[in-house]
Amino acid sequence: MTRSDSTTSSSIIKAAGSLRLHYLPKPFFSRQKSSELVASPMDWQGQKLAEHLMQLPLVLFAVLAFITGYVLGSFQTMLLIYAAGVILTSLIMVPNWPFFNRHPLNWLDSSEAEKYPKPQPANLGMKKKTSKK
Amino acid sequence: MHSVMLRANALLTFSVTILALMCAMASLSDNFNSPSPTAQVQVLNIYRFQKKRNGDDEVSLTFNMSANLQSLFTWNTKQVFVFLAAEYETPKNALNQISLWDSILPSKEDAKFWIQTTNKYSFVDQGSNLQNKDFNLTLHWHVMPKTGKMFADKIAMTGFRLPETYR
């Protein structure tokens, strides 16, 4: 992370702030420190969990809805059960719940990264390539 | 799945795909239904049989019909469109089909019915071929599903004849 990254991100966050997104509850939007600006509110394990929490309930609700609708002979019942399943699934996996961030990654602070400049490519290697052409 | 928007998008896409699969399965489940419809029709009176000014024959008749199409309905049936057609042959056309009456049956209860009426739509020939003509009265139906393929079938009731002279 270099200084230019954090400046762009902070300007985006400031612009987003003008949209009053910070009035939403914490799972939907949370003010974060500058070091967390480019980190997401979810970690890798959380993303895997979110994907499973979407696929499994939806498939289960679909099977339940179809069987119930077929047995009762009502198409509407099938659709209602499935719609309830979709809403329930959206409530458990769409917002930024804290349990999605139980294994957070520790990003390097930008001030720390600047102490160690990036290595430059060696000039000898470049000259060799051009002479071969 | 790192942002709210991305997860909402994934949820929407996945749930709609599964909904499409459920509808396909519902449509396929209709194949397990083996319908056994019945129908009978009687022509009561042919009260008009004229040649119109442009040379075409026209017939007006009253008929009664009883039918039981309840076995066509499944959980995936929205409605059944039913119509009664007069079918006959002329030198010009191998098959002439003229719809005399139609109706929409929105539910299973409506599918068992008896009706006596004049023809709802005019029975007009292309030309003047109807004298002494044998014709069938065929009951056609289209089963319209809530989702999936519509299928159509019919019952032909034969043995009807138009008069020899105009009246």
Automatic annotation (TrEMBL), chain A:
Keywords: Endoplasmic reticulum, Membrane, Transmembrane, Transmembrane helix. Residues 113-133 are annotated as: Disordered. GO terms for cellular component: signal peptidase complex. Its main location: endoplasmic reticulum. One of its GO terms (biological process) is protein targeting to ER. The keyword Ion transport does not apply. Signal peptide: none annotated. This is Signal peptidase complex subunit 1.
UniProtKB/TrEMBL annotation, chain B:
Pfam families: SPC22. GO terms for cellular component: signal peptidase complex. It comes from Fraxinus pennsylvanica. Keywords: Endoplasmic reticulum, Membrane, Signal, Signal-anchor, Transmembrane, Transmembrane helix. Belongs to the SPCS3 family. Residues 1-26 form the signal peptide. GO terms for biological process: protein targeting to ER; signal peptide processing. Essential component of the signal peptidase complex (SPC) which catalyzes the cleavage of N-terminal signal sequences from nascent proteins as they are translocated into the lumen of the endoplasmic reticulum. Essential for the SPC catalytic activity, possibly by stabilizing and positioning the active center of the complex close to the lumenal surface. It is found in: Endoplasmic reticulum membrane. It comes from the Eukaryota. It is a single-pass type II membrane protein. The lineage of its organism: Eukaryota, Viridiplantae, Streptophyta, Embryophyta, Tracheophyta. This is Signal peptidase complex subunit 3. InterPro entries: SPC3 (IPR007653).
